[in-house]
Amino acid sequence: MCLANFFVAASATMVLPFLSLYIETFGEYSDAYVQRWSGFVFGITFLIAFFVSPFWGRFGDKFGRKKILVITGFGIAFSIYLMGYVSSVIDLFVLRLFMGIVTGFIPMSMALISSQTKKEEAGRVLGTLQMGTVSGGLFGPLIGGALADSVGFTYTFLITAIVIAGATTVVLIGIKEVRTEQVIKEKEKRSMVEVLQLIIQNRVLMMVMIISFIIQTANFSIQPQLALYVNQMMTVENVAFLAGLAFSVTGLGNLTATRSWGILGDRIGHDKVLLICLTLAGLFFLPQAFVTNIWQLVVLRFLFGVQIGGIIPCATAYIRRAVPLSVQGEVLGYNQSFRFLGNVVGPVVGGIISGYWSITSVFYISSTLFFFAAISLLIVLKWQDSHVNKSSANV
């Protein structure tokens, strides 16, 4: 499952290095046209996924999570295969839109593994699974760029589609889903409105959703500006490479720490690890506004990535503990929707902030978001503890 998540996550980001170049092969376009449609084509996948993720989660809870994994896996492979044969930017846009519709594989895999795992081990197991997702997103652009240079655009899409279809076939044959009697025979079925009420009424759970959004927004807010920021610090020819290094090293830090954070969450509580990671993320993000050379930036972004590595598995593990198995997939779908929304909002907000003020202002405001989330989570946890103590006293 970890390997399948790697290839699916890589497929979402592999087009980054050559997307604008691929669009240019469709005809004679201006630079502004290519840049605009590159943003549209890349962003539409995450925007559509934001809306449909809860539905995939709900279908998985009802019909079985493995079935949804297979449907979405082959759906992604099919859309990527067709991308290699499009002849216009509109065709590519439509296929990326379709890819967003079937992008329920990763949250569904986490829901499946979570439901098959003991609550006491959820952090460690989900942290291991997250390593596949993070490494896929990290190496996706590298794999895509290398393949495009070696075999061309069409074969890059074809090879990627075959690999994802193969990984999905392995899931189909090799993964067995055990559905508990509690889920199969459960008489009380919740509507989507009731599931939303469940999330809203649980203040910590709602805060976890907001944290997922804040993390993605803050992390991606600096992405479009990073090359310009690096260029301001130094005058070298390989600015694009150094900017890519500065951004990718965050994923490397994430990859190295995510399993350890999950294990720590199993020991001391996933909500406590979330609080620690949010605070440290803000502390390592803010100094990036004051760096004077590229290597200071790389080190700080690596340390920032280490903190991000604890948030996703611990958020998922908390949901595993707090939510009934019968609606776990749907709730994880909502959590994934908040993350997808952050993927879309982050670059837009970062661009607006840097346009009105400066690039360093992005670091200030995003750091403030981390500290705000940490303080809010602390307040909610204190409220929950006092509420539980009052309830115990009344009993």
From TrEMBL:
PROSITE patterns: MFS. The chain crosses the membrane at residues 7-25, 37-56, 68-87, 93-113, 125-147, 153-175, 195-219, 239-261, 273-291, 297-319, 340-357, 363-381. Coiled coil: none annotated. InterPro entries: MFS, MFS_dom. It is a multi-pass membrane protein. Residues 1-385 form the Major facilitator superfamily (MFS) profile domain. It is found in: Cell membrane. Its main location: membrane. Keywords: Cell membrane, Membrane, Transmembrane, Transmembrane helix, Transport. This is MFS transporter. The lineage of its organism: Bacteria, Bacillati, Bacillota, Bacilli, Bacillales.
